[in-house]
Design a protein that fits this description.
This protein is α/β, with parallel strands linked by helices. It has 14 helices and twelve strands. It folds into three domains: 57 residues, Orthogonal Bundle (434 Repressor (Amino-terminal Domain)), CATH 1.10.260; 130 residues, 3-Layer(aba) Sandwich (Rossmann fold); 129 residues, Response regulator (Rossmann fold, 3-Layer(aba) Sandwich), CATH 3.40.50.2300.
């Protein structure tokens, strides 16, 4: 008569304790989701008969994380064309995993007074996603709750949390390389690097591309405190003795304004001056001409953030990770070959 498969057989096969097998098969806490699924897989392979095995799939689901909070500033939530796409992707991923999503918008008063949403203090939330920047002190206080947290499109040296980020340096490198390969050597940079670490990284990529091609950066062409204000950009532009033949802008807003400014001054884009920017937002697409840009897959951003949070919930003691997502150059009508006498 064939011997019945025991929990010990499963434990021996996986080199884990019999107690861990019992916890996994009964749906009790104490083992990771990864181990739980592995135990079930081996139990099925060995033909293990367990009274509660029919309930396992349901118990796996109910003992897993249930409630996820998505937190962002009022300002970030207002940028619908960019962060709205990420939010929709997060919502879909959370729903597909059978979890609930709670949205919390942080106003300036809560930010200044470091007032956390009440749902973080009453043990309802299993994981937190923070969309973009709020303030370093505020994000640090969220992390201090001990609830697994993943940052989306933001990081800072003092914040000990996983982050899903755009590969800003390499993206900016590709954009500026595109301009250089079109024959441009005098390339301007426009953006406020103090506003976001992403913009500082895009400046780094700009400088890296110039140096990689043996071009010395010109200090006067690098406008690192640029606000998205036409008057301020005009003042800066007018103060230049010589003008770049191409501009790299850190985002859509700056790209749109620089293109408008050039056209107001009688320059033809791209015949006389080229413009390239980052993010592939709505302004890139409605500008005339449409602006060459670095595209970010915002849906993938949300997907990776939820995946990472799920992993972090089950691997709390693993080292912090920063995951860089690639960008893609979209060549449109605002960039063209440069001819010195053209």
């Amino acid at each position: 008569m064939e011997r019945k498969v025991s929990m010990q057989d499963i434990a021996d096969r996986l080199n884990i304790s019999k107690n861990s097998v019992s916890q996994a098969l009964s749906g009790k806490p104490g083992v990771s989701e990864e181990t739980r699924q592995l135990v079930q897989k081996v139990a099925d392979e060995l033909g293990y008969q367990y009274a509660g095995s029919r309930k396992l799939k349901q118990s796996e689901h109910t003992t897993g994380p249930k409630n996820i909070a998505l937190i962002a500033s009022d300002f970030a939530f207002s940028l619908v064309s960019f962060f709205g796409e990420i939010y929709l992707s997060v919502e879909k991923e959370v729903r597909d995993r059978g979890m609930n999503l709670f949205i919390e918008s942080i106003n300036s008063d809560s930010k200044e007074k470091l007032i956390l949403p009440s749902l973080l203090s009453n043990h309802q939330i299993d994981g937190i996603l923070i969309l973009s920047h709020i303030s370093t002190d505020y994000i640090a206080k969220v992390i201090e709750t001990g609830i697994p947290t993943v940052l989306i499109d933001h990081h800072e040296p003092s914040l000990q949390a996983d982050a899903i980020l755009t590969n800003n340096r390499f993206g900016a490198f590709s954009a500026v390389e595109h301009l250089i390969q079109l024959g441009h050597q005098e390339i301007g940079f426009v953006g406020d690097v103090h506003f976001s670490p992403s913009y500082q990284e895009r400046l780094d990529g700009y400088l890296l591309a110039l140096r990689n091609y043996g071009l010395e950066p010109k200090h006067e062409f690098i406008f690192t405190k640029a606000q998205e204000d036409l008057g301020e950009l005009n003042q800066y532009f007018e103060a230049l003795d010589t003008k770049p033949s191409a501009w790299f802008c850190v985002n859509d807003g700056h790209g749109f304004l620089i293109t408008s400014l050039l056209q107001q001054k009688g320059y033809k884009v791209p015949e006389e001056v080229s413009v390239c920017n980052f993010d592939n937002g709505q302004l890139s697409q409605i500008a005339t001409p449409k602006i060459t840009t670095m595209d970010i897959d915002l849906k993938y951003f949300g997907k990776k953030a939820v995946e990472q949070l799920w992993w972090r919930i089950h691997h709390r003691d693993e080292p912090i990770q920063e995951i860089l997502l690639p960008t893609k150059l979209l060549v449109r009508d605002s960039t063209a070959a440069f001819h010195k006498n053209g």
